[in-house]
């Protein structure tokens, strides 16, 4: 990770949306972050991370906890990760600004912001104004819009948010697009090309379709434990070996179909990560419930994906 990311340091490839380690008592567990980073780099071949996002249960964390976690992620990632993007979105503009200022202090490579989801912005202009107020606190830090309407309920097309955003946020660098709307995604790619922004896809089971539309990379939770396989998918796609890329994508879809029959959610996903990685990331924080035994899902994963 660089001392301070520059706007021309383009984020691309796989980005793991990291889980937040907790103790059995529900407190943040900083001791696991160093081994976690080593696991991603050495076992999965993933060299970029997106911390304190949805997978990281950010909305269940206090501002102080998020600052503590972000600081340790950035510290432990030095010389091991290419980029650390810190999600700083909150329901409160002031909290988002505070987290953004802290991200600059700890030399994060970029910040991302989700749209508020309690008092929801209903227009693209409202979303952009919120993003702009966060970005102007740290105008030199690369800025990413985090679009995830299924969670926020903010159903404003991402393409509308991107329209003219470069004039409002000179540090604007890209979008984390976590929606199944591939038409909106394609229009984001089209609009972003002239500015050379990063357009990163966030629906793991549809990545191949996004690559065909021009995605620069992907941010996802499953890349924590299947990053090595998805790197192969991307390599096959880049080499024009679409049949082989499809085989990997279809396996991912088979796993998701099986997992959803077993109540797949953040709690189950985190437990699966614990099982597959050998790390002790603990349970999720309430209101997300701990999952039941995930032995069947672990076995299904191993049947689909042999060791890298």
TrEMBL record:
It holds the Pfam family DHDPS. It comes from Seriola lalandi dorsalis. This is N-acetylneuraminate lyase. Signal peptide: none annotated. InterPro entries: Aldolase_TIM, DapA-like. Pyruvate binds at residues 55, 219. It catalyses: aceneuramate = aldehydo-N-acetyl-D-mannosamine + pyruvate. It is found in: Cytoplasm. GO terms for biological process: N-acetylneuraminate catabolic process. GO terms for cellular component: cytoplasm. It comes from the Eukaryota. Pathway: Amino-sugar metabolism; N-acetylneuraminate degradation. Keywords: Carbohydrate metabolism, Cytoplasm, Lyase, Schiff base. The active site is at 146 (proton donor/acceptor), 176 (schiff-base intermediate with substrate). Its EC number is 4.1.3.3. Its main location: cytoplasm. SMART domains: DHDPS. Belongs to the DapA family. NanA subfamily.
